Amino acid sequence: MKDLKVLLTDFHYKKEFTPVEKITAGVLYTVLGLPSAVYWAVAKTRNFLYKKRILKSYKSPLYTISVGNITTGGTGKTPITAEIANYLAKKGGFPAILSRGYGGKLNNKNVNVISDGLTINHTAIEAGDEPFWLSKHCKNTAVLTCSSRVKSAKFAKENLNCTALILDDGFQHLKLQRDLNILVVDSEKKFSNGCILPLGALREPLSSIKRADKIVVVNKSFNDKKAKAYARFLRKKYSIPVFVCSMVPDEIYNLKTNEKLSDSAAVIAFSAIGQPEQFYKFLRGYDVVGTQDFPDHHIYTKEDLDTLYKLKEKYVAQALITTEKDAVKLKEIAPENTDIYALKLKPVLDLKGLLESDEQ
User: Fold this and answer.
1) What is the DSSP string of 108-167?
2) Is there a domain that residue 39 lies in?
3) Per-position DSSP letters for 308-336, written without gaps between them
4) Residue 73: which region, alpha, beta or left (left: phi > 0; alpha: psi -120 to 50)?
5) Beta carbons within 8 Å of 135's beta carbon, 6+ residues apart
């Protein structure tokens, strides 16, 4: 039987059902309808209270950018956050990325300085995969984790003299005001079935899209025609500037040696991300003989490595391939002569248009 989370994800994004699947879908609609209605009401009420300023929010003196989405699972917001941070740093600024630090072992009641822009102070296990990945890929950028983004924002200004703030996964974090609110949308998954959790993948009602100042449609396929058409649709429907970001495979490198993997090799692909099937699509130049999915933000163990190596042996694969987010957690436990490789994706996005003007 499928894992419950996998079953719900299939249900949230599936467009057509077989007769047997329709029976399961009917049961899920019946069971999840009421909790979804309650979730919808709570989200609408919360958003209304912040809009009317009944619930108070904090305005930082630093220019604040939020990058987030309104669905569960990965949309590509973390690589976009990194691109924005690097753009600001190259222009002479010293930005701070504020993350909740989900999946990390650190106590997030207080601010944790994962990176001060020069030194990375914690491991991927301690910090969480996304904050650690951001620390590795964003030079001259502070990376902070804390359950309170307000506390992080004040710390970045008072203790690190940062010049700008970037909220990673911050669309629902209304307690901290932002000067630029960027909504990231997956061009393939879109807004699931249009229903709110747990009936659908929406974190809040679709009407919340209007809070966005700009939208980024992330294209994870090899053809951007559909993504551009969807961007035009959103632009017309919501009267919001919309940009297309293409995620382009850059290289596949060994975790320990950085050696590149030859094309057409037989591989086992594995990951612990929200939407693993999109990662697998990027490996079409390889012979993917098997796959292994782990729960989102999974902390890998030696036993997991044993499982993967057995899978590799079973299918006579030449290598194991994972995502860069997974790679940062595996590097410490992988052997020196490892045959685990990571896929590096490169976002292609008009950052100047996104950050410096309202032009589309």
Assistant:
1) TTS-EEEEESS-B-S-HHHH-HHHHHHHHH-TT-EEEE-S-HHHHHHHHHHTT--SEEEE
2) no
3) HHHHHHHTT-SEEEEEHHHHHHHTTTS-T
4) left
5) 114, 115, 120, 127, 143
Distances (CA, A) of 183 to 28, 31, 214: 29, 30, 6
Tokens representing 247?
């995620």
Q: Is the domain of 252 the same as that of 230?
A: no
Dig out the tokens for 40 from the structure: 């919808």
Q: Is there a contact between 326 and 304 (Cβ–Cβ < 8 Å)?
A: no
Contacts of residue 123, defined as CB under 8 A and 6 or more positions apart, other chains included, come to 132, 332
> Could you tell me how far CA 317 lies from the centroid of its own chain?
29
**330-339 per-position pLDDT tens digit:** 988 998 899 9
Q: Burial letters for 47-81: b for 16+ Cβ neighbours within 10 Å, e otherwise?
A: beebeeeeeeeeebebbbbbbbbbbbbbbbbbbbb
- The sign of the torsion formed by the CA atoms of 53, 58, 60, 66 equals negative
**Residue in 135, 130, 137 with CA at minimum distance from that of residue 103:** 130
Give residue 232's identity as a one-letter amino acid code. Answer: R
Give yes or no for a contact between 230 and 242, defined as CB atoms under 8 angstroms apart: no
Query: Looking at the domain assignment, is residue 226 inside a domain?
Result: yes
Q: What's the alpha-carbon Rg for the chain, to the nearest Å?
A: 21
Q: Determine, yes or no, domain membership for 8.
A: no
Instruction: Spell out the residues 6+ positions from residue 202 whose beta carbon is closer than 8 angstroms to its own.
Output: 70, 71, 191, 192, 194, 195, 196
Query: What's the Cα-to-Cα distance from 155 to each of 64, 100, 146, 149, 150, rounded to whole Å?
Result: 14, 14, 10, 10, 9
Give the residue ranges of the chain where pLDDT is below 70: 1-4, 6, 357-360
Q: Are 298 and 222 part of one and the same domain?
A: no
Residues contacting 311, CB < 8 A, separation 6+: 268, 290, 292, 317
pLDDT digits (tens, 9 = 90+) for 101-131: 988 899 999 999 999 999 999 998 899 989 9
Domain for residue 35, yes or no? no
Identity of the residue numbered 104 = G
How many domains does the chain contain in total?
2
Q: What are phi and psi of 173, to 5 degrees?
A: -90, 80
Dihedral angle over CA of 63, 67, 70, 72, nearest 10: -140
